[in-house]
Amino acid sequence: MKSKVLVARHALHPMLIVFPLGLLTTSVVWDIVHLATHERRWTIISFWTIVAGVIGALLAAVPGFVDWLAIPNGTRARKLGLYHMVINLLVVGLFIVSLAARWKTPGGYDVAGLGRMLPGWIAIGLATVSAWMGGELIETLGISVREGAHPDAESSLEEASPHAKGSRLHGKA
Question: Distance (Å, rounded) from C-alpha 65 to C-alpha 133?
Answer without folding.
Answer: 15
